[in-house]
Design goal:
six-stranded antiparallel β-sheet; Jelly Rolls; RmlC-like_jellyroll; 270 residues; 23 strands; mainly beta
Amino acid sequence: MYKLRPFVSEKIWGYERWIVSTHPAGQSLAEGAGNDGTAVPLADAIGSYPLLIKVIQADQTLSVQVHPDDAYARVHERSLGKTECWYVLDAAPGTSLICGLTGTYTAQELRSAIAENRLEPYLRSVPVSKGDFIFIPAGLVHAINGGLRLLEVQESSDITYRLYDWGRGREVHVEKGLSVTKDLSSEPVNDFTGPFSCDYFSLERIDAGSGAVTVSCAENDFILFVLSGGGALACAGNRASCKAEDTFFCRAGETVAVPAGMSVMKIAAR
């Protein structure tokens, strides 16, 4: 079990902490994984990992985006696609996410609305609160509004097509974005506990409550992200102190003891 240190990416709207990453654009560090006990890039400790997991702090609204699926990304970007999901860590009162479109529109209708800076009526907004979960498959138009802190789990890809940027003047990728947009929708799951799984990842919230619990996965490596509580995780005779938003990489077959009063999100690649 390795405690991880994030790679931090500052943005004009807030920041991202890449808490689990072997992506070349930014790697997290595995504490104690070096031969001399030092921290090393996660890829040096485990090789490549198919997921990229982030904490996103959105102080302002992000651009409206859409991501390609694997088939498109492989041909046009030489990359994995990007299917992802969000778990809401914190939300300002009345905050929402943009998740899909309000109807079925032609590419030309959307292209014209983007060019004329009037895409807002086409965007579907859904209210969210702390503890909610929403799945964002590749091809679903989406945006994160300001006032949200999210745990994001995605394929290990840094491909984003920015469809619309609220008139802020940054580069947009309209034609690529429209070519991968699909007629999809997704609904938030309130007070998510899981389990949830798709073709790429699985998530389950584990609440230790009044007594310690053990967490393991026989088949796959897994991630433990501390949602709340504090103390120490124990694995194979070793103990690691932790607090909310600390992240641990655990090997398949390892058993981790989670202390009473702690809640963790267990995440695994599929």
